[in-house]
Amino acid sequence: MLGCDCPVCTSPNPRNRRYRSSALVRTPRGNILFDTTPELRLQLLRENVKLVHAVVYTHYHVDHLFGLDDARLFPPMLGGALPLYCAADTEAIIRQAFAYAFLPEYEALPAGMVPKLEFRRIGDDPFEVLGERLTPIPLVHGRFDVLGFRVGGVAYCTDVSGIPDRSWPLLEDLDVFVIDALRPGKPHRSHFSLEQALEAIERVRPRQAYLTHMAHTMDYDALVATLPANVAPAHDGLSFPF
Question: d(Cα 149, Cα 157) in Å, to the nearest integer?
Fold first, then answer.
């Protein structure tokens, strides 16, 4: 956290140095990226990801969106526009925040100078990306409606303050549950606390759960020592097969 000298912010443990939350699913037909964080370029370089074939958005907040311009380098390699799968409100914000990408006078510019994007509208119904079935999971994020996603036996639910009744069945029989857990103790109006996340994990009963979107009040090693055996803090670079 900028301007902070707390033990977590000054920790030498690399697992206490956390970028904003994105996720990548590698498939036989290409890479599906969930959200474009402001650190997107650094994240992809770190993980040696040379190409993203499609982007899926959970919502339009800055910490999940504002790395989109770095995706301008992918369309030349794809041979066409980068597909963006998102809800209507997210599309509207992208068109506003990255208006230069849609100016008619820029249409003739070579690919790679501005993002070449193709919107693919999604709602609550399952859809297919690169041969994989994605199931949207409606979630509450403060006063916003956002989406988590299920791919096979994995559910990715970042930015959660509530799970609607209709979404719980979508979380049954999970191998891996990635869930928002901002901080211990004090509730937050837009995010699960650690305790709320653990309650959700207990209800879902996944084989493995990972906590994400953690604030600087969460020390990795101290947290690990307190968690159930099938729960762990996520960390930058975490990967698992499924």
Answer: 7
CB-based contacts of 39: which residues, under 8 Å, 6+ apart?
19, 20, 67
Instruction: Spell out the long-range contacts of 118-122 with Cβ–Cβ below 8 A and sequence spacing 24 or more.
Output: 118/80, 118/81, 118/82, 118/83, 118/84, 119/84, 119/86, 119/91, 119/94, 120/83, 120/84, 120/85, 120/86, 121/86, 121/87, 121/88, 121/91, 122/56, 122/85, 122/86, 122/87, 122/147
For tokens 């699960």, name the residue.
192
**In what helix (H) or strand (E) does residue 55 lie, and over which residues does it extend?**
strand 54-56
Residue-range definition of the domain harbouring residue 30: 22-123
Task: Quick: pLDDT tens for 91-127.
Answer: 999 999 999 999 988 877 777 788 999 999 999 999 9
Indicate if 36 and 107 belong to the same structural domain: yes
Q: What is the pTM of this model?
A: 0.96
Pair 156, 149: CB distance under 8 Å: yes
**242 lies in a domain?**
no
The count of structural domains within the chain is 2
Domain end, chosen from 103, 123, 143, is at 123
> Are 118 and 139 members of one domain?
no
